[in-house]
UniProtKB/TrEMBL annotation:
Leader sequence segment: none
Comp. bias intervals (Basic and acidic residues): 40-50
Protein's UniProt name: DUF4283 domain-containing protein
Source organism, top-level taxon: Eukaryota
Organism placement in taxonomy: Eukaryota, Viridiplantae, Streptophyta, Embryophyta, Tracheophyta
Transmembrane regions: 343-369, 375-393
Keywords associated with the record: Membrane, Transmembrane, Transmembrane helix
Transmembrane helix listed as a keyword: yes
Organism per entry: Helianthus annuus
Record has rRNA-binding as a keyword: no
Region described as Disordered: spans on this chain: 34-63
Length: 394
């Protein structure tokens, strides 16, 4: 027994040692007598021992031991257990979204692509007036103007079966928590990088709904990115090992901070495809507000943006003669090129005013030369140009 106690006393957990006490009041140990403290010291004062008030002392690397928490949970910083959860008692009369009860349906989408384009899909089948609310994961709440339209949509099973795996009337029922998370996978060696490997890693954390788009000949060889479906609100930040042949590789899986939401929540998909004056320029810049990012597949086309700016500058030059362009101040020339032809009209008055001012100064110079013949004509003209240059060239 003493050898066992001595061996266990040398076991370390983090920065602490185990405190070993022999059970004195158990029936099977009733004939045992308390042994003398090791080394002749008082119990609890020797090296590696603590006072009986807690298994671990307060301080760095220690936790209070709570009911339902194992040593593994303590070592991995998982000290929270179900018994530690706080309970908030709500008023039983609370019932949100009661106004749409009877005229709304709740459904689970078949997949990620169906979720992204749900709004346009409903319009194509004659239910474009429906209002869509995103519940999370692959679940949406669709409300109609009245209960008749809601029932008509429920009865059109051949239609909604192409979009939903299940659909039911909304009566305030509880729904399971789900969310879509985007994860980055780092550490996969180049010779093992493939969509299959990334998807297999992602499946360890949730259901893969947007597989990795990794292409061997395109992109970097650092990160793999994919979307997964989760039933937990905890952020993913994990480490695992890949075993290949006789080698092992450490891989890190990190969830992106931004929360993904479908694009139809704040932008109509048809407006994203609306053409501009060029016919090929689409303003589809993703918007980030309070850490929420729209569908990441909607991005700006840099090439079209450059073409639009060149078109504006070309139209400006066609609308103005070279003399007008030269007479504009430098700052206004830049502004005109940026704003396009609409800005030109507001500057015509300024252009002609400067032309008249220059003519007036030249006339004064010529008349002055005729009155004061001692002043050469070229000097008078030069003075006029110098006087007018700050006005037309600043």
């Amino acid at each position: 027994m003493e050898d066992l106690k001595s061996s266990l006393s040398r076991v370390k957990l983090g920065g602490n040692k185990l405190l070993v006490n022999v059970v004195l009041f158990a029936k099977e140990n009733g004939n045992l007598k308390p042994s003398a403290p090791l080394g002749g010291r008082d119990k609890g004062t020797g090296e590696g021992h603590t006072r009986s008030q807690g298994l671990f002392p307060k301080g760095h690397g220690s936790h209070h031991v709570k009911k339902g928490v194992s040593f593994l949970d303590i070592l991995t910083n998982k000290s929270h257990s179900e018994g530690d959860e706080y309970v908030v008692v709500l008023d039983p009369s609370i019932f949100s979204l009661s106004s749409i009860t009877g005229k709304a349906v709740v459904g689970r989408i078949l997949g990620f692509n169906e979720l992204r384009f749900l709004n346009s899909s409903l319009k194509s089948v004659g239910f474009g007036d429906a209002s869509i609310q995103y519940v999370g994961g692959l679940t949406v709440l669709i409300s109609f103007e009245n209960g008749v339209d809601a029932n008509r949509f429920l009865e059109a099973k051949d239609i909604w079966k192409q979009l939903f795996s299940s659909l039911s009337p909304w009566i305030g029922q509880s729904l399971p928590f789900e969310r879509i998370a985007w994860i980055n996978i780092l550490g996969v060696p180049p010779h093992l990088m493939s969509s299959k490997v990334f998807d297999e890693i992602g499946s360890r954390y949730g259901k893969v709904i947007q597989p990795s788009q990794f292409i061997e000949t395109v992109g970097d060889l650092i990160i793999g990115r994919l979307g997964i479906l989760l039933d937990s609100g905890n952020k993913i930040n994990g480490v695992l090992s890949l075993s290949w042949q006789d080698k092992k590789y450490k891989v890190w899986v990190v969830e992106e901070n931004d929360q993904w939401i479908p694009a139809f929540l704040d932008v109509d998909e048809e407006s994203l495809a609306a053409s501009s004056e060029l016919g090929d320029y689409v303003e589809t810049q993703p918007k980030s507000v309070s850490g929420i990012v729209r569908d990441l597949s909607v991005v700006r086309n840099p090439k079209s943006w450059v073409i639009l700016q060149l078109w504006k500058l070309r139209s400006l030059r066609k609308s103005m003669s070279p003399l007008m362009m030269c007479m504009l101040p430098c700052r206004e020339r830049k502004k005109s090129a940026a704003l396009g032809p609409r800005f030109v009209g507001s500057n015509l008055l300024i252009v002609w005013a400067r032309i008249l001012l220059l003519i007036l100064l030249l006339v004064i110079a010529v008349l002055g030369w005729g009155r004061w013949t001692q002043v050469p004509l070229w000097v008078s003209i030069l003075v006029s140009l110098i006087v007018s240059s700050p006005i037309s060239l600043y």
